[in-house]
Amino acid sequence: MTEPYGTQPYGYPQMPEQGGYYGYQYQPPPPPPPPKRTGRTVLTVVLAVAAGIALGAAAGNYIPTLLKGQASNQPSVQTYVPPTQPGRTAPQSPADTSGVAAKIDPALVDINTTLGFQQAQAAGTGIVLSSNGLVLTNNHVINGATQISAVDIGNGKTYTATVVGYDRSHDVAVIQLQNASGLATAPIGSSAGVAVGDSIVGIGNAGGVGGAPSVAGGTVTGLSQSITASSDDGTSEQLTGLIQVAADIQPGDSGGPLVNANGQVIGMDTAASQGFQMDRGGQATGSGQGFAIPIDQAISIQKQISAHQASATVHIGDSALLGVQVPAAQNSRGRRAQATNGAVVSGLLSGSPAEAAGIVVGDVVTSINGQAVDSPNTLTNLLTTFHPGDRVTVGVLTVNGQQSVTVTLAKGPAQ
């Protein structure tokens, strides 16, 4: 999830520190440990404010974590089987969850990402929109990914995926499966007619374990919800216009479909409350409130991305990399105290454009192409508007005062 967040390494957002690699060191890092395997978290809700009709319990406070599952080096080739419900609580609605899921499952993919700079792996879910492999998912599912693959549930094949584009502010991303054809596609409905009390089914790669998707029955409890979704490093992201459901949405479900009783996709699972717990065996207990992006909104953004229409919020193609690490929370000491605003450099990626330009730890990035940088998040937002190969002028406060350096941005991981 997420997948908005915390320490912002190397000029791209939302990637929690993992181990010594992120702590800047002047000596080579030790040999990397085996990759950590996680189910990409559905975002977790700090605060839910009803902006429309709302029934039932409000979402509680919670802190999201990436679900740690078992690492696997085995080929991800699977055969479609009828869905099961490992770790799910009993359905909370009269909807025929297995029947609904049977209509949707062949049109889903399990998304697996390698977070190269974090020495970790993560997983989520995607919705197949075209027979040649156009897939809708959450932006936080692919955030930080240096490699993306997807297992099509319908045919069991594994595909390499590339990022077509993303909208960080609405947590929507579109990926393309390479050399795919003949895939089953999801029946897309409309979220316009969704009402409180409607029966729904949430479907996804719960726990990030792969295989047949699991399902969670429930009901719609709120519309047009606004939430602040938090990551485990304490930073947050605001999302609006969401569908709230009483259903057991879990880590790994991110990017999966919220389906009505007719088997049509009406939303995309995105966030959940703390109403569930993961036991030592990786099974879920309890239930909570889930939140989904209305499918009408998600498809509108997808069409913009597919048309390669960039905007202030929509990025098309590969992400640009400056190569600086900046903390989300900055205190004032040294050169930091001299800068009213800016993003303090706490680490550098070896061989990055920033390092080549002479930027060092302790410098403060104050502008990009003349646009002021007043916070680490502003730096991330500005860099999102550029692409690999773009030349930009970076304003930097150094020990010798304010300077400007010109850098050519490199290719970075998905944001």
Give an account of the 3D structure.
- It is elongated, with a radius of gyration of 21 Å.
- The protein is mainly β.
- 53% of the residues are buried.
- The chain has two domains: 34-317, Thrombin, subunit H; 318-412, Pdz3 Domain (Roll), CATH 2.30.42.10.
- It has helices at 97-104, 139-142, 295-306, 353-356, 376-384; strands at residues 36-39, 43-50, 67-68, 108-115, 120-128, 134-137, 147-152, 158-167, 172-177, 199-204, 214-230, 236-246, 257-260, 265-272, 276-278, 284-286, 289-294, 314-316, 319-321, 324-325, 343-344, 347-348, 364-368, 371-372, 391-398, 401-408, 410-412.
- Strands 2, 10, 11, 12, 13, 14 and 17 form a seven-stranded mixed sheet that branches. A six-stranded antiparallel β-barrel has the order 4-5-6-9-8-7.
- Helices cover 9% and strands 37% of the residues.
- It is built from five helices and 27 strands.
